[in-house]
Design brief:
heterodimer; A: 286 residues; alpha+beta; 4 helices; B: 173 residues; mainly alpha; Arp2/3 complex 21 kDa subunit ARPC3; 6 helices; 0% strand
């Protein structure tokens, strides 16, 4: 018996490892768990790495922009090449600074218009699984970010914090199929459900009776009934209204107000006073 | 023993770095771009080069990190990485992979298996199996093959799993 175990030690250990992986997966019950010590250490290592990569990419793209500008000027005028190149480089840099200033100013206005604790955060990256649409931001528990908090920009709703560690947090974006929120049609004040459809260009409008008044382009706002998002935040505009001849509800989509591909800074809002338990459905599409 | 621990640590650090790099690259390219399964390239390399136990432990750890980076760790990718490693080890006994191009092909096949396993296991346990969820797989497989091509010299330089003596699922007895 002992010699058998000794001879087949490695295959047996691997079988045990496989069994442990299976049990661990089945036990997790597809629920989001709080990060343990090992998770926190690994996430603590990746966040600075991501910051470093972002800084490097920003630096390289800035240098590239200046290089491209310099080449264009060189072709136009050989004599003024150096001076023009320098000026154009500065213009590129200033345009970038101005764009950033504009974004930050709008966020500041948002702060004035909507007082209360908020955390301004930068988007670091996107998670590696296309079926779980989350973003990594550079603010975490150390900055007051907690699971379940709403994340917005001046344009509208981005999502909610799914998990926070000391220096970073993951945000589940609204167009993830597991995401639900309470909405309201601005024009008619009708309450609706909003669900992610896995596509950053479209959300699903749910639970609006077929007989209700709804038009293309109607603005959808948060209703505040989900306990996560405060009322009045812009979700998007109604698109693709379909009234079936049968069934209780009509079908429509929502074009999100936020351009997710261009997200750079976001605001994490304080929990709502009536915050319900985390309303994310973690079962479903993989 | 100590060299195994060092190789395992190098594998984990390299995986963390590649996952961090990938998440930033995907962010710059836009959310709708298919992901690049860099971890599958690492698991494929382990299947070719590592011993059974060392490779299984490393694949488990790599899958764990991928799970962690998804934001909603459920253990699915840990399990799938381990199964992909075992499948890869079995396949490695049937094929000869010695160049970057053949490694890219091997990694692409691994990515197909990885994607299908994740889809099937995740779908069955979630009681939902949508074929539409596989729409991005071909592009992901192509991108993973490209990544494997670029990573091959790096993985060889780091010498991940350099201890393996024979190919095959149970080849290192």
């Amino acid at each position: 018996m002992l010699s058998f175990l000794r001879r087949h030690r490695e295959p047996l250990l691997v079988t045990l490892l496989l069994a442990y992986a299976v049990l661990n997966f089945l036990q997790s019950n597809r629920r989001v768990r709080e990060p343990n010590l090992v998770d926190r250490v690994a996430l603590g290592v990746t966040a600075p790495l991501q910051r470093g990569v972002v800084a490097t990419v920003d630096g390289v793209s800035g240098t590239w922009s200046r290089y491209v500008s310099l080449r264009a000027v060189r072709q136009q005028n050989e004599g003024l090449r150096e001076e023009n190149g320098k000026l154009r480089g500065e213009v590129v840099g200033l345009a970038e600074v101005r764009a950033e200033n504009d974004r930050l100013r709008r966020l500041l206005h948002y702060e004035e218009a909507s007082p209360g604790p908020k955390v301004l955060a930068r988007v670091l990256g996107v998670n590696p699984d296309p079926n779980r649409l989350t973003l990594r931001i550079d603010r975490g528990e150390g900055d007051g970010v907690r699971r379940g908090q709403a994340v917005v920009t001046t344009d509208g709703v981005v999502g909610q914090v799914l998990r926070a560690t000391a220096s970073a947090a993951d945000v589940l974006v609204v167009f993830d199929p597991n995401c639900r929120l309470g909405g309201r049609i601005q024009r008619t004040r009708a309450r609706v459900g909003v669900a992610g459809a896995g596509d950053e260009q479209a959300l699903k409008l749910e639970y609006l009776l077929r007989t209700e008044d709804l038009e293309e382009g109607d603005l959808v706002l948060t209703s505040g009934t989900d306990g996560v998002y405060p009322p009045g935040l812009v979700v998007g505009r109604v698109t693709g209204v379909q009234r079936q001849t049968s069934g209780m509800f009509l079908n429509a989509g929502i074009l999100p107000a936020v351009s997710f591909a261009k997200l750079e800074e976001v605001v994490v809002l304080a929990p709502q006073p009536s915050a319900a338990p985390f309303p994310v459905r973690t079962e479903g599409r993989r | 023993m100590s060299s195994t621990v060092v190789r395992l640590a190098v594998t984990l650090l390299l995986t963390l770095f590649l996952l961090a790099l990938e998440s930033v690259v995907v962010k710059y390219l836009g959310l709708s771009v298919a992901r690049i399964d860099v971890t599958v390239a690492i698991v494929a390399f382990l299947a070719l080069r590592a011993g059974l136990l060392e490779g299984a432990l490393a694949a488990y750890a790599v899958g764990y990190l991928l799970d962690l980076m998804t934001g909603q760790p459920t253990g699915l990718y840990t399990l799938v990485a381990l199964v992909t490693f075992l499948l890869g080890r079995f396949t490695a006994s049937l094929v000869d992979v010695r160049s970057a191009i053949s490694f890219a092909g091997f990694a692409m096949a691994g990515d197909v298996a990885h994607g299908l396993l994740a889809w099937a296991i995740g779908g069955v346990t979630g009681k939902q199996l949508h074929l539409a969820a596989l729409a991005g797989l071909p592009l992901e497989v192509m991108l993973t093959g490209l990544a494997a091509l670029l990573l091959y010299p790096l993985l060889r330089r780091f010498g991940l799993g350099a201890e393996r003596r024979e190919p095959g699922l149970l080849g290192n007895r």
